[in-house]
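Note to self: the last two entries modelled the partners one at a time, which told us nothing about the interface. This time every component goes in together.
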Amino acid sequence: MAASATDGGGVKPLPLLSIGATPSPLVRSGLQVSSLLIPLLLWTVISALELVDGKFLPSPAAVLESLASMAREGILFQDIVASTGRVFAGFFLATLVAVPLGICMGVYPAICALCEPLIAMLRYMPAAAFIPLLIIYLGIGEEPKIALIFLGTVYFNVLMVMDAVKFVPKELIETTLTLGGRGRQVLVQVVARYSLPSIIDTLRINIATSWNLVVVAELVAAEVGLGKRIQLAQRFFRTDQIFAELIVLGLIGFAIDMGFRLLLRLSCRWAL
Amino acid sequence: MELQVRHLSKTFGSGQHRKEVLRDISFALRSGEFLSLVGSSGSGKSTILRLIAGLEQPSSGQVLVDGQAVQGPGPDRGMVFQKYSLYPWLSAAENVAFGMRLQGLPQRDIKERTAYFLEVVGLQDAARKLPRELSGGMQQRVAIARTLATNPKVLLLDEPFGALDLQIREAMQDFLLQLWQRTGLTVLLITHDVEEALVLAQRVHVLAPHPGRIVSTVEVDLDKSDLNQLRLSAAFLEKRRTLAGVLRQLEPALV
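The predicted structure of the combined assembly is written out below.
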């Protein structure tokens, strides 16, 4: 290659890809829209030209139609309620345990020493591997699914909350003590409050895992749910339904993510 | 009120990692006095303050407030740190009110005292601002107001202006001196800055490092009606030179 570097300038990098470069708001929005639009366009073109058998790659129109018909029949709503209900129940319980425990582990080295080795190990046991046990213990109703989501997220939540708490400046805790604050006041009014933005962010990241696990749980044993519907659709070779359900899964997950971001913005304006 | 520090020693760690930080520190501080401890890093000056605040326990010796041994932290010994001292999610006024809330003062008193102490530090107009919207000097004034609002017997200041620019630091020194003259506070100031100690305190204890111990004491009897003049006066400069010399000799292998 005889790339000319004779003018001393060398090859100019793409302006958008030089490190630290920020695109203008307009360019940025354009890129963000393209991120979704380009795959959609490719999909439309490929199925319009019938480059892939429609049985394997249904057209966007077919998927939309399938979505509409599931909505009309009420299946879609039922599935969404079932799946999100499981996610929220399991994740809520995991949060209920993880936030206080994580805060205590972050503040008290003794509690940390007592709990961390166990949690660090449990965390590496894949939650899905607990399914058989959960079915033996809890049957095939809602309980094992909620328990699975709980197990799959609680350890990560604990450890990440603990880490967040360690960023509370020591001076702030000590100031509170010299102002007359007692243990509980320090934990609730200072440590938890200071870590709130990181805790909300931790929950936002980890709820994605429970969204994964709910599908796994429903594949094993369920009457309704987005994951269950996908399994049924496979039995009848309804790829259009599978696509529709996948898109719904993605959209709801995205909405939950946005919900957490909104919560962060509303409750922690000081940290943004 | 009398604060007595008696034969205070502090050693961290044990065995090979044993480190003697303070050796036999004794001094006293009475109501209305302004005392400064001056020393370089390694002189254990912050540790002395933390022992008085009750944030650490002495290895031997004791700290007495009005004859009562200090057991742990409490609002009778208010402390202001060098940084990270404000609650970032609370406005200036809410920060000032926070200590009083912790102690469960009646709502009306909290409101009145908050307004009063914000005015004392000259920040009544910044009451609703968040800490990040305040300059470093303003933040420290809020921290001082918050501590004063809980009515401490003694104000412990741990290099409170150490993170500020020189000009703001001098303005803050003027502010603190006036505050002390106006309100009759009792202040214990830790600093490595000889000038700061001389400008503010009535008495300065000089600490030697490794382990920290008091090696000399200077009484400061200068006219403090105009600090800008004081900083340039011959008497002040002479005292400053002497004190800086003492500190330098304590650091055998500097740099």
